[in-house]
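--- STAGE predict ---
source: upstream dedup step, 1 unique chain passed
mode: sequence only
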Amino acid sequence: MRAKPMAETRLQYIAGRLAAGRILVVGDLMLDEFIWGRVSRISPEAPVPVVEVTSESYYPGGAANAARNVRELGAAVRVAGIAGMDAAGARLIELLDATGVDTTAVLRDASFSTTMKTRIIARHQQVTRVDRERHATLDAAQTAHMLAHLDRAIDSVDAVIVADYGKGFLTQPLADQIGRKARAAGKILAVDPHPHTSLLWRDATVIKPNRREAFQASGVIPGAPILPPLEDEALLAACNRLLQLWQPASLLVTLGAQGMLLLQGQAPPRHLPAHAKDVFDVSGAGDTAIAVLALALAAGATPGEAAELANHASGIAVGKLGTATVTAEELSASVSQS
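--- STAGE serialize ---
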């Protein structure tokens, strides 16, 4: 049996402590529907495949999926957001309750339409996606409701995850309050941003955009990806702009097949190569990454160690079909095999 390198031993130790975390997830809640089927012919009505449905499945999506990922790793998690009184909202709450996610901070509103994304999958490939959503901004009473829940929860959690999907739940005043309250309570704040909202995230411990989001949020004109990423001048310019704009303690940019790029203040950027062996579905991989990132930091990991574990977790998630989660056993095995 080989002796484990010190770095691997350290990552295994942190992975073993993820279940001790207590997390509050705030953001846009969605329901993900997957319609599974097979294609045997092309429609005579239009040049599109005819999908014969074999099964359907439902998963928490958006911020709800980030909460589901936290819970799958054994940690305690509460989710705060808004859901309609419609069938999609009821199913979403039912799914979260069944996995052990605390939904007491979810505001149910009859005037709100729960976002649902329907993906049609055939032969392990996504044929199309149908979105049913209506953007709506919280009013003053709803914002006060969310902040009251945040006040009650902040002292009992180790970290706050914000998952912004640009559906209108998160506003600048709410973002500012989340940042202030997390800083005042000395809590980790991990943000998965959405560039279309143009929100400024101050007081964040770590912000995790993907490559496209980094360019959109920074205003830097993107170019084709350069290998290695540390020589991608446009990407580095976008990252440096975001460090100035958002001023996070750490910035982690996910790069798909290229892995991740970690930036911290004046330290040199660090590239983490991807661990994915096969990529079947990227749905929800960002939620997996932000969940592991926050839990690892809460367990005492350095930003580099937390990024390493998030990178491993993302590699596992994209190898699964559907809005996938990662178990502690899978994470530990991935670290051992690297």
